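Possible regression after last week's pipeline update?

I re-ran a chain I had predicted before the update to compare outputs. Posting the input and the new output here so someone can diff against the archived version. Not blocking, just want to make sure nothing changed silently.
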Amino acid sequence: MWFGRKRNKRASEKASAKASGKAGSDLAPLTRAIMELSGDPGLDSRVARQERQARSGDAEALIRLGARLLDEGRDAEAEQQFRRAAELGEPLAMHNLSVVLGKAGRAAEAASWQQRAAELDCAPAMVGAGFRAVDENRLADAERWFRGAAEQGEDQAAYILGVLLSEAGRTAEAERWLRAAADKRNAEAMYSLAYLVQEAGREPEAELWYRRAADEGHPQAMNNLGTVLRYSDRVAEAQEWFRRSAEAGEPMGMLNLGELLEAGSPERAAEWYRQAARRGAAKAQRHLTRMAEQGPGRPA
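New output (post-update):
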């Protein structure tokens, strides 16, 4: 906007064109420097807009601002924003507030806000309420909370619900929920589903799910897959999965790898047995004792 006498449009265009070369050369380095420092020339305006919306009482803006403050390590300020949104009745803010309070060691207040959010069907809060119920041995309440979150698509809730149902002997329903979580690439659910179907005698399907969980980096699934392969005469592939399990820190993988290596390389086998024994594998310690008793050439 121009103030004072209105300029002739053509004169303005000529003046702008004349100045563009010099102005462009002067301002371009400055613009580049600002962009390098900020990373995003629109960042400040977005943050300012978010803060204005938060000050106006916009619950979603309060939550976004709280999340940004939390990412920046400004927990006390984040708490203020989440609390304002929570007091407006926003369930996600209640849940976020409970997380901040929990980090600060204010467990009772955290539980109160988490409960309020869960009762308003906030799925993450329902998961938290479910874990709290498990800790307090209120398994019926735990099932109710996990089921509610699972029905909203929370894969972690579906996995835990499946485990609870399996432990209660309700295997058909357990399989349904474990499968729902496994289909969302939840590795723990894949592993538990594999174990469930293996116990039911469905070995090919168990191998499939152990393999999928192993491909997701699950060390116990790697070991169990190796065991399936070992006892179906696919020893070379079994050894590779035992190795991967062992290298990921799984004691049973270390034990099983040692057993496959012992005949051809007792020294390497003993080293894996030692590592497994240090992690509590009693059978590995028995192997070491036996090898020591056998004398030279079979080190312990």
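Follow-up from reviewer: compared with the archived run. The CA atoms of residues 76 and 249 lie 38 Å apart. Marking as no regression found.
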